[in-house]
Write a structure and sequence with these properties.
The complex is a heterodimer of chains A (about 425) and B (about 270). Chain A has two domains: about 5-40 and about 400-429, no CATH class; about 45-390, Orthogonal Bundle (Cytochrome-c3 Hydrogenase, chain B). Helix content of chain A is about 45%, strand content about 15%. Chain A contains 15 helices and 14 strands. In chain A, helix 4 (about 90-120) packs across helix 5 and helix 13 (about 375-390) runs antiparallel to helix 14. The longest helix of chain A is centred in the N-terminal third of the chain and has 32 residues, at about 90-120. Chain B contains twelve helices and five strands. In chain B, strand 3, helix 3 and strand 4 (about 85-90) form a beta-alpha-beta unit. The chains are: A alpha+beta (about 425), B alpha/beta (about 270).
């Protein structure tokens, strides 16, 4: 009998601090934990007593990579609570800034966090020594996403412009038109990205996932929608608590979200794509087909292709919104607080972000619940690893470790969101 | 910062994270036009968010993001300090305790119970504190998030052995420079600009909203005058005034005392 322990201090190239513990006996996994020990920051506690006006600004600070997701889900929930309806022109602007976030976040993950795994580099900076043109393409894509985000939001990290009811200031047509040429370039670059990543070697690893994503009758859902799955789930955000529950496990500072009746599920790019392929713009569908991707993607490693396809879609979406853009008459709808409860969802780059708030008659927050996508994927990541480790049990420790890191990075986990540190420990006996 | 010899080998850069949102270290990756140049000027030796290659210390320059909220982190920051020739704290969490310092006015055990079903699994300190409360810091770069331009200036200054050129005047100066009419004077919109350090580029007033203090107090903030103006001229109620100071830099000394003064009877330590 061989006894072996592998300890790794970080899982790198994720947003946050997490750890992994794997215990093996005779080549079999006997225990496995995906740990999140990012220090808790207690957003749901200190939001109590704050005004509804503070919620989008404060919750954006949960995550520097996807602040728009938090702002959008927050304003959706507040508007639901106060019975506000925003005009289409404002919803269009919300989609547009969200496209900026999808492009920057996906470009960051595809080029800087995920691709180096497939090509055997420690980082994108190492990769740039051999592939400077490719890394520069990724950086330019990322920059264009950030430029769009910053134009509408005021800045790319923690934008200041989104508010309950809309925006403080709506951009002019000419300001947006100035981005068209870059976005056209980005759309082509995203198509090229899809072809590039499709050439990587993928582990033949498929799981029978319950995909959970937002659904909209006419759109590839980003800013709102019903919550659906491939196992019959079809609910409004208001019914979240009936279907999902959060469980607290000792090894993680992030709560595990499960479907009460069934357990783990997957949210994020593969779920959106597999449930919403027909809603993608033709240019994105075509890129997917050329990449050899079927209309359902059950291989989490191929999420890098799906993210690239979604970048194509987001660029096209942004271009179409700009093309038909007319500034709203007023940049926001005034809010009228009332004692109420509201729910909001949107599709962060890494999956559904759910918010619920309860308000008093002055619009002060009495109670709230925020469920980030990485909390939802946490258990699913563990389940992937249970299936994945045995296939590679014979690999040398350093190679096994890299494989496992990659299996976790498939989910683009944002551990800051879910609370953060990836430390990998493999014990073999 | 003392003058130093131009190093023959590339200086080693470390990026360390404490309780935070990752946004400030992301600012380095968001320098899309400069990132590869930075990587050729310094050896990015320890930056887990970007690379799985980690070189052991010591580091010539360490950028530290996040606040200290756990006993483990209170020890870890001492190790980072020991490993660092220069240590620069970046962002509102690292320089002022961040938004999570709102716990400092409350009982953290209540917070744990509000958020987590099994409170005994959670280990946390009752205060969120800036890096400078724990170790000596060579420079503090403000902002929630920091400005990319200021980050590059700080790294360049370090490479050139000079003091970073980071202004400590107020956001008002940036509004004037940008040609933005004063939102307090023209619209009666409450604005923290007069007491807040510049650095963001005065974004909020340019988007028709008041500054909400992301860069923390400027060097000589007259918060008493601003509080009086908000209250007497703009009709802002005391609880809203307190909430304005208790934002992302709530535990920065000048904002902490200004907030506490607006709420007599609730002062704390």
């Amino acid at each position: 009998m061989t006894e072996k322990t592998i300890k790794v201090d970080y899982l790198a190239r994720v947003e946050g601090e997490g750890a992994m513990y794997v215990k093996m006996e005779e080549g079999k996994v006997v225990d496995l934990h995906f740990k999140i020990f990012e220090p808790p920051r207690f957003f749901e506690a200190f939001l109590r007593g704050r005004s509804f006006r503070d919620a989008p600004d404060i919750t954006s600070r949960i995550c520097g990579i996807c602040p728009v997701a938090y702002q959008t889900s927050a304003v959706n929930a507040i508007e639901d609570a106060f019975g506000m309806v925003v005009p289409d022109s404002i919803r269009e602007l919300r989609k547009l800034i969200y496209c900026g976030e999808w492009i920057e976040s996906h470009a960051l993950h595809v080029y800087m966090l995920h691709a180096p795994d497939f090509l055997g580099y420690e980082s994108a900076i190492h990769m740039a020594r051999d592939h400077p043109a490719i890394v520069e393409r990724g950086l330019r894509l990322k920059k264009i996403g950030n430029d769009l985000l910053a134009l509408i939001g005021g800045r790319e990290i923690h934008p200041i412009n989104p508010r309950t009811g809309g925006f403080f200031r709506a951009p002019t047509r000419s300001e947006l038109e100035a981005l068209v040429e870059d976005l056209q370039w980005a759309r082509e670059a995203a198509v090229a990205t899809t072809a590039w990543v499709a050439g990587f070697e993928f582990a033949p690893f498929e799981q029978d996932y319950e995909f959970v994503a937002l659904s909209h009758p006419d759109e590839y859902a980003i800013v709102d929608g019903r919550i659906i799955s491939n196992r019959g789930l079809d609910i409004a955000a208001q019914e979240w608590g009936d279907v999902f529950e959060e469980r607290h496990v000792e090894w993680s500072n992030a709560l595990h979200t499960v479907i009460k009746e069934r357990g783990a599920f997957m949210t994020g790019p593969n779920a959106r794509y597999s449930l919403g392929f027909e809603k993608l713009y033709p240019v994105a569908q075509q890129a997917a087909r050329k990449a050899g991707l079927a209309e359902t993607c059950s291989n989490p490693f191929k999420s890098i292709i799906v993210r690239s396809v979604e970048m194509v879609h987001a660029c096209e979406e942004a271009l179409q919104i700009i093309d038909r853009y007319a500034p709203p008459d007023r940049p926001f709808v005034p809010a009228t607080p009332r004692p109420s409860v509201g729910h909001g969802v949107s599709e962060a780059p890494r999956g559904i972000c759910y918010h619920r708030y309860e308000f008093d008659d002055d619009g002060l927050i009495l109670d709230c619940q925020i469920v980030p996508p990485t909390s939802q994927n946490q258990l699913r990541i563990e389940e992937d690893l249970w299936s994945y480790v045995p296939q590679y049990a014979d690999l040398p420790d350093d190679e096994l470790q890299w494989q496992l890191e990659q299996a976790i990075r498939n989910y683009d986990p944002c551990i800051s969101c879910a609370t953060h540190f990836l430390k990998l420990t493999v014990e073999r006996s | 910062m003392t003058t130093r010899m131009v190093p023959i080998t590339k200086p080693k850069l470390g990026v360390f994270k404490f309780a935070s949102c990752d946004g400030c270290q992301l600012s380095l990756l968001d320098c899309e036009d400069e990132l590869l140049a930075v990587a050729s000027a310094v050896n990015i030796a320890n930056f887990p968010e970007a690379s799985r290659a980690v070189e052991e210390g010591p580091y010539d320059l360490s950028l530290v993001e996040g606040s200290v909220t756990t006993l483990h982190d209170a020890e870890r920051i001492k190790e980072v300090r020991e490993q660092s020739v220069f240590l620069i704290s970046i962002g509102a969490c690292a320089t002022a305790g961040g938004i999570q310092a709102l716990r400092n006015w409350k009982n953290v055990d209540d917070f744990v119970r509000m958020v987590y079903p099994t409170p005994e699994f959670i280990s946390t300190l009752d205060r969120s504190t800036p890096i400078s409360y724990h170790v000596e810091v060579d420079f503090e770069l403000r902002g929630c998030p920091i400005s990319k331009g200021q980050l590059l200036e700080v790294v360049a200054a370090f490479l050139q052995g000079r003091r970073p050129n980071i202004p400590t005047y107020s956001v008002c100066v940036e509004c004037k420079r940008r040609g933005t009419p004063c939102v307090m004077v023209s619209d009666g919109t409450p604005c923290l600009g007069p007491v807040t350090q510049a650095g963001c580029g005065a974004i909020c007033p340019a988007y028709n909203r008041g500054c909400y203090g992301c860069f923390g107090p400027m060097e000589s903030p007259n918060t008493a005058a601003l509080s009086r103006w908000w209250r007497d001229e703009l009709g802002v109620a005391a609880p809203d005034l307190v909430a304005a100071y208790r934002g992302f830099n709530a535990y920065a000394e000048a904002f902490k005392s200004a907030g506490d003064e607006c709420e007599p009877g609730d002062s704390h330590d």
